[in-house]
Description:
It comes from Geotrypetes seraphini (Gaboon caecilian). The chain is mainly beta. 8% of the residues lie in helices and 37% in strands. Strands 2-3-6-9-14-17-20-23-24 form a 9-stranded mixed sheet, with no helix packed on it. Strands 4-7-10-15-18-21 form a 6-stranded parallel sheet, with no helix packed on it. Strands 5-8-13-16-19-22 form a 6-stranded parallel sheet, with no helix packed on it. A hairpin with a 6-residue loop joins β23 (144-146) and β24. The protein is globular.
Amino acid sequence: MELSELLYNKSEYIETASGNKVSRQSVLCGSQNIVLNGKTIIMNDCIIRGDLANVRVGRHCVVKSRSVIRPPFKKFSKGVAFFPLHIGDHVFIEEDCVVNAAQIGSYVHIGKNCVIGRRCVLKDCCKIQDNTVLPPETVVPPFTVFAGCPDPHLDLLRNQLGAVELQKMSDWSVFSMVSYQNAHKS
């Protein structure tokens, strides 16, 4: 998957000391419980629900527009409990996704319009194809491609660790700042 260069207007993003870029149009609920480990990009209209439980996001991650990241929950006889969400390094979450997983490993790609059910575990180096719905408590093994709804198992990625790692490391570098005048030229 080759990424094209993404241009953004610097005035529309907040850049932290550790290099995170967070859109001013995104919503971070309970920001004291959200940890972005560095050089992570949160694009416009994203919602991260740190008010429910802790959310930890690794380095060099991208969360594209209109995605919702929220911690998983479990129903008990006396109510509902929320659990922390851990996202690894070099994770790419495309547009319009709802992620309610317990854990997402490193070098994971989640396609457009996906729903990751509550308490799912996505191991390292896996891919979720566009429009996939993962049922609650699904475990996605390493080097696996999932697609479809509701029986999503598709294929196994073999001997691609090096290629996956290199591609994910380069994903973050295509996000470039452009001046306001250049961003609005047609």
